[in-house]
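Key result, reporting period 2: structure in, sequence out.
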C-alpha cells in the first residue's frame, strides 16, 4: 500500500488552488442518469471516487468521458441507453455512490438494483431515509443478498418530512422527484452547498425546483429532462483543510479558487484561535497571528461547523494554548484519528462524542495509520508540524477525495512525498 513520508517544520507560503467538490460532482454525475441527452460537467476533481463513479455509470451502459488538463477537468456523460440498471457491489464497495443512483435509476427506468453503500467506516449512513422516501413516492423496495431492488411504473409526488437531516437522502429524493408525477414537498432538508449545486444542474436540465438551500424544497415533476452544461462548486472541505494547513504551520497561505461564503463557520473558528484571515471574492488568505489559542467546536449540519473538518481542526487544537472541546454530533465513529494523534504526542481524551484536546503539545514523528478520508488529512496536518519524518500508511483513503494533495502542498513548501518519490519534486 502507498505511504506518505512527511518531514515537519516548514511554514506553508504562497498560493494553493482548490479543486472542484467531490461531494458535488458525485450526485451531479448521478443526475445524468435522468436524461437520454448529454450532460457536461466542468471542474470535476481528479480523485478516485470520481473514477469509481465513472466505472459505475459505464457498467450500466452509459457513455462517460473524463477529461483533464486542457479539457479543464470536464466530463461528458450520455445515458442514452441504460442496459443494466445495477450498481454492482464490486464497484461501489468503497463509496456511497450506490445510494445516489437509486433515486434517478428508478425515476428513469422504473427499476433499480443497488448494492448497499460502502465508504469510510466513520459511522452509520442509514439508507432507511432513502427507502422510506421512495416508498412514499410509490416505489416497491425489497432487500436481497446485500442489494436493494426498487420498482415503480412512475413515481408519484409526495410530502416527505425527513426524520433527520440527510445530505445524500435529500439529493437522492430530489433527483427522483424531478421525474415524478405531480408535486413533491420535502421538509427538514439538508442545506449544504452540494445540495444547491445539484439543484442548479437539475434546473439547467429542465427540472422545476424551488427552495434548494433551505429546509423546504418543492419540486414539480416533469415528463422528461434534457442535457445541460454545469460547473461544479469549489471543494469547501479541501479549502478548509488548506486553511488549517497554513494556520497550523504558522505560514502565509492564500487559498485560491474557493467560495468563501461556504467557509463561514471555519473562518469564524480560526479567527477565535487567533489566526489572521483576509477574505476576497474567490480566495482566503490565512496568516499567523502569533500563538494559537484553544477554542471549542461542535459539528453541525450546514451552515454549522462541518463534520468533514472535525479531524483537521483537532490537529490544529493540539498546537493551541489551552483546552479545546470537540463534540461530534453527525457520525458516531469519527474519532478514529485520535489514537494516531496520541501516538504522535497529542494529549487527547474521549468521552462518548466529546474529545478534549489539551495543548500546546509538541508532536513527534511516528508511523501512523489512515482510517478514513478526513482522518488522513488530519494526520498530514499533524505531520507538517511534527519533529522528524512521519510515515502515513493507507493513504488511498486520502486519494478518494483530495486531488494531487501532496503535490499541492509541496508547491507551497511542505516536505511531503509518496514512498519512492524524492523531496523537492513538484
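The corresponding designed sequence is given below.
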Amino acid at each position: 500500500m502507498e505511504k506518505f513520508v512527511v518531514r515537519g517544520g516548514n511554514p506553508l507560503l504562497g498560493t494553493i488552488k482548490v479543486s472542484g467538490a467531490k461531494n458535488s460532482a458525485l450526485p451531479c454525475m448521478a443526475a445524468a442518469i435522468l436524461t437520454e441527452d448529454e450532460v457536461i460537467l466542468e471542474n470535476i476533481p481528479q480523485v478516485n471516487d470520481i473514477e469509481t463513479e465513472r466505472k459505475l455509470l459505464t457498467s450500466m451502459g452509459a457513455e462517460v468521458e473524463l477529461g483533464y488538463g486542457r479539457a479543464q477537468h470536464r466530463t461528458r456523460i450520455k445515458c442514452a441507453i441504460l442496459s443494466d440498471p445495477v450498481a454492482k457491489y464490486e464497484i461501489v464497495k468503497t463509496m456511497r455512490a450506490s445510494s445516489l443512483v437509486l433515486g434517478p435509476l428508478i425515476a428513469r427506468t422504473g427499476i433499480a438494483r443497488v448494492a448497499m453503500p460502502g465508504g469510510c467506516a466513520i459511522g452509520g449512513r442509514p439508507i432507511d431515509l432513502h427507502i422510506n422516501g421512495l416508498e412514499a413516492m410509490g416505489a416497491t423496495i425489497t432487500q436481497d443478498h446485500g442489494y436493494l431492488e426498487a420498482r415503480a411504473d412512475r413515481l408519484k409526488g409526495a410530502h416527505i418530512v425527513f426524520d433527520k437531516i440527510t445530505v445524500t437522502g435529500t439529493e437522492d429524493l430530489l433527483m427522483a422527484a424531478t421525474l415524478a408525477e405531480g408535486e413533491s414537498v420535502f421538509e427538514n432538508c439538508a442545506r449544504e452547498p452540494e445540495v444547491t449545486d445539484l439543484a442548479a444542474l437539475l434546473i439547467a436540465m429542465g427540472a422545476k425546483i424551488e427552495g434548494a438551500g433551505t429546509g423546504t424544497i418543492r419540486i414539480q415533476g416533469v415528463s422528461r429532462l434534457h442535457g445541460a452544461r454545469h460547473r461544479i462548486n469549489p471543494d469547501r472541505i479541501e479549502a478548509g483543510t488548506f486553511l488549517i494547513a497554513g494556520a497550523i504551520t504558522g505560514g502565509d497561505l492564500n487559498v485560491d479558487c474557493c467560495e468563501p461564503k461556504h467557509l463561514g463557520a471555519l473562518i469564524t473558528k480560526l479567527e477565535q484561535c487567533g489566526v489572521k484571515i483576509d477574505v476576497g471574492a474567490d480566495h482566503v488568505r490565512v496568516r499567523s497571528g502569533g500563538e494559537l489559542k484553544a477554542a471549542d467546536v461542535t459539528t453541525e449540519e450546514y451552515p454549522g461547523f462541518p463534520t468533514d473538518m472535525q479531524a483537521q481542526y483537532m490537529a490544529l487544537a493540539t498546537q493551541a494554548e489551552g483546552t479545546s472541546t470537540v463534540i461530534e454530533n453527525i457520525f458516531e465513529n469519527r474519532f478514529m484519528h485520535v489514537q494516531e494523534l496520541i501516538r504522535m504526542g497529542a494529549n487527547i481524551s474521549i468521552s462518548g462524542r466529546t474529545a478534549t484536546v489539551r495543548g500546546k503539545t509538541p508532536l513527534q514523528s511516528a508511523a501512523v495509520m489512515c482510517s478514513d478520508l478526513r482522518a488522513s488529512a488530519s494526520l498530514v496536518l499533524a505531520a507538517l508540524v511534527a519533529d522528524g519524518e512521519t510515515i502515513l500508511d493507507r493513504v488511498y483513503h486520502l486519494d478518494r477525495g483530495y486531488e494531487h494533495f501532496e503535490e499541492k502542498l509541496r508547491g507551497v513548501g511542505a516536505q511531503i512525498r509518496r514512498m519512492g518519490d524524492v523531496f523537492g519534486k513538484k
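Residues 22-231 form a domain with the UDP-n-acetylglucosamine1-carboxyvinyl-transferase; Chain fold (CATH 3.65.10.10). The chain is about 30% helix and 25% strand. This case is discussed further under Risks and Mitigation.
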